[in-house]
């Protein structure tokens, strides 16, 4: 599946720059292949479904939201809500 991110819009409007991929009942988010405007290409393993990921060119996943709440990205690459990470 392919989505292009366009920063344009029309008069006094803009498009959402976050691509959205519906996965249905899948429990595996799969791999995102990103073709950056610089010409660089990256393949990023997405650790979980139902998340909004911030991906930075050359750095991979640099942030995540779980239901609108910031998530922590663990050293293993998994994602957990910050409230879950803070529990003893």
Give the overall shape, derived from the CA principal axes: globular
Kindly report the spatial arrangement of strands forming the biggest sheet: 3-4-5-6
SSE ordering: EEEEEEH
Helix content: under 10%
- Percent of residues in beta strands: 25-35%
Helical segment tally?
1
Uncertain parts: 84-88
Strand count, sense and barrel status of the largest sheet are: 4 strands, antiparallel
Structural class: mainly beta
Structural description of this entry:
By secondary structure, the protein is mostly beta strands. It has one helix and six strands, in the order ββββββα. It has one helix at residues 82-86, and strands at residues 31-35, 41-45, 52-56, 60-66, 69-73, 79-81. The strands form two sheets. A four-stranded antiparallel beta sheet has the order 3-4-5-6. Strands 1-2 form a two-stranded antiparallel sheet. The chain is globular and about 40 Å long. Mean pLDDT is 76; it is low at 84-88.
Protein traits:
88 residues, mainly beta, four-stranded antiparallel beta sheet, two-stranded antiparallel ribbon, 1 helix, 6 strands, 34% strand, disordered C terminus
Quick structural gist:
6% of the residues lie in helices and 34% in strands. With 88 residues, it is mostly beta strands.
């Amino acid at each position: 599946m392919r989505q292009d991110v366009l920063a344009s819009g029309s008069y006094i409007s803009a498009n959402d720059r976050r691509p959205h991929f519906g996965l249905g009942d899948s429990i595996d988010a799969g791999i995102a292949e990103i073709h950056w405007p610089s010409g660089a290409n990256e393949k990023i393993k997405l650790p979980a479904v139902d998340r909004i990921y911030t991906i930075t060119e050359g750095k991979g996943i640099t942030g995540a939201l779980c239901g609108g709440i910031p998530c922590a990205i663990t050293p293993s690459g998994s994602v957990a809500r910050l409230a879950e990470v803070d529990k003893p």
